[in-house]
Amino acid sequence: MTTEATPVAADQPTIALDPVDLALIDLLREDGRATFSDMGNEVSLSGEAIRHRIDRLERGGVIKVVGSVSPEVLGFRTFAGVAINVSKSAREVAEHLATFPATDFVVSTAGDFDVLVEVVCRDDDELLQVLDDIRAVPGVQGCHTFLYLSFEKYGYDTSGGLGGSRRQNGLSQQDPLTLDHADMAIIQALREDGRASYTDLAAVSGLTYPSARRRVLRLLETGVLHINTMVNRLLSQGQVQAGIGISVAGDIRAAAREISDLPEVGMIITTSGRHDLMLEVTCRDKADFADFVGTRLRAIKSVTATRTYGYLHIHKLPYTWSGLT
């Protein structure tokens, strides 16, 4: 077995979080639209104090509360990871790719590739066009595509990277839903601010306050809309995140089941292309990450080779995907 690991370093400053900040993040993960007053009751602070703390976390890029619609709901059924090498500033290329409507997740990395991108498309023809568009970006020297076949593990609450817009095992075959103008207006407003007030949502949708509230609750209850509190772990806790490409011997899904028992693994995707599996892992620090790759992952006999892509800077988080616009 070969294991190719690379140093992982974040160029983003870590923001110090106290126990109250961490408690608030947990509360927002449970309910992204929880009121300041209710959260204040949980941590024995005033609603105004909670407002200031959450504003600090949002302005610092630690959290972002957003509304999202799973791409499958709208008929998007082709997903892929694209690993890119560049001949100029990786940050500049990554920021350019983050503006593409089809990109769901963009991160600059250390390893064989400079940038990893996840794309969401309606079908293979659209994926081909998106890949051509990526190759046409100035500075893109080459790219490798990993077509997603199934999602074998989604161990995150709402803060995953790769595969972040999908939580089910396998690709959904449900029929896309029809959403009217008011639905779309509400979804667009909640994509920008998942905590937007019902008053604001009524204004943008042209509905009355009670109708807007009922519409939001219907979208949430039917599972069309999700309110997600995205957490930038590189900023919030100084943790190490990385994508890991895995080659396995034997049954790929059996290997995925064994790997899924490792608590550091938040995401497992079966792919066609260079790797049999793509993982996303989160470790306490670099030493923990080195032990994970060099010891705990290596202990799984079916794993024959790994390649690591350490996250340096996250340029676009999941759930900011804009394909529905």
Automatic annotation (TrEMBL):
Source superkingdom: Bacteria
A Pfam family: AsnC_trans_reg
Gene3D superfamilies given in the database record: 3.30.70.920, Winged helix-like DNA-binding domain superfamily/Winged helix DNA-binding domain (1.10.10.10)
GO cellular component: cytosol
InterPro entries for the chain: AsnC-type_HTH_dom, Dimeric_a/b-barrel, Tscrpt_reg_AsnC-like, Tscrpt_reg_AsnC/Lrp_C, WH-like_DNA-bd_sf, WH_DNA-bd_sf
Keywords annotated in UniProt: DNA-binding, Transcription, Transcription regulation
SMART domains assigned: HTH_ASNC
Protein name (database record): Putative AsnC family transcriptional regulator
